[in-house]
TrEMBL record:
Note: The reaction proceeds by a bi uni uni bi ping pong mechanism.
Entry binding sites for ATP: 33-40, 151-154, 180, 188-191
Taxonomic classification: Bacteria, Bacillati, Actinomycetota, Actinomycetes, Micromonosporales
Catalysed conversion reaction: (R)-pantoate + beta-alanine + ATP = (R)-pantothenate + AMP + diphosphate + H(+)
Native source species: Planosporangium flavigriseum
Biological process annotations from GO: pantothenate biosynthetic process
Name the UniProt record assigns to this protein: Pantothenate synthetase
One family name in Pfam for this protein: Pantoate_ligase
Length: 280
């Protein structure tokens, strides 16, 4: 365990447990895979405002990457991440190795995300949500957090984590934090750094489509049609899905709050975005 001008850096479960034992009052956790950006900073700030202590986990979880995905090239920027954690007043950064996290190798028992985990991201990335929920469940146990903060940018992930906590009685509060966007509308994501300047321009179509959908929300079909029209105007975008759901990812309502979700590939980078829509 080391204190490097800021947070305590815990690399093992024992170091985390020792740091956690010294905390009284509420503990907020922000789980990350590193490559921090302003979206993570917003999560950390929210945790700092609401909880007495803030633990940040930094772990690139191999379980949630498919064989042809970007686990090896996922950006790893530890020193910069630690600076951001320090600036946001994080108390402890837990950054285990895969062997520390999974001492018996890949876990034989994993959290099953259920039917919602097979849709959308789950359909494109088989096993993804089993990997996410398994690591989130383990990190909730290891940190013994009272409140956990997740970005709305990964809306399906947030929804499934809420369901897991409810269905498995995990006894932790889940707080969703709104997406942070660049001035042009692009949702912040660690994977944005894969985009070339031209691809960044192309990627703006996602947030434009969400805005178009929200404006056209006289009914669900109009909202979807407006979003699709906007995306079709950007030929180099390879759209995976554009869907309208209720806020729990069920069938869209006739009236009231709904969610518009988009996934598309720009070059080799897969991007997702979503926004609330009020159906009139
Ligand atoms: O959203 C992420 O960065 C990851 O899915 C999470 C929640 C840290 C689990 O590895």
């Amino acid at each position: 365990m080391s204190r490097e001008a800021g947070p305590v850096v815990a690399r093992t479960r024992a170091e985390l447990a020792a740091a956690r034992a010294g905390m009284s009052g509420t503990v907020g956790v922000v789980m990350t895979m590193g490559a921090l950006h302003e979206g993570h900073a917003r999560l950390l700030r929210t945790a700092r405002e609401q909880a007495d202590h803030v633990v940040m986990t930094l772990f690139v979880n191999p379980l949630q990457f498919g064989p042809n995905e970007d686990f090896d090239r996922y950006p790893r920027t530890f020193d910069r991440d630690l600076e951001i954690a320090a600036a946001e007043g994080v108390d402890v950064v837990f950054t285990p190795t895969p062997a520390e996290m999974y001492p018996n190798g890949e876990p034989a028992v994993r959290v099953n995300p259920g039917p919602v985990g097979e849709l959308l991201e789950g359909a494109s990335r088989p096993g993804f949500f089993h990997g996410v929920l398994t690591v989130v469940c383990k990190l909730l146990h290891l940190t013994r957090a009272d409140i956990a903060y997740f970005g709305e940018k990964d809306y399906q992930q947030l929804t499934l984590i809420r369901t897991m906590v409810r269905d498995l009685d995990l006894g932790v509060e889940i707080c969703g934090v709104p997406t942070v966007r660049e001035p042009g509308g692009l949702a912040l994501s660690s994977r944005n750094r894969y985009l070339s300047p031209a691809e960044r321009e192309t990627a703006l179509a996602l947030s434009r489509a969400l805005r178009a959908g929200a404006v056209a929300a006289e009914n669900g079909e109009d909202a979807l049609a407006a979003a699709r029209k906007e995306l079709e105007q950007t030929a180099v975008l390879d759209v995976d899905y554009v869907v309208l759901t209720d806020p729990e990812l069920g069938p869209p309502p006739e009236h009231g709050p709904a969610r518009l979700l988009i996934a598309a590939r720009v070059g080799t980078t897969r991007l997702i975005d979503n926004a609330p829509v009020e159906i009139h």
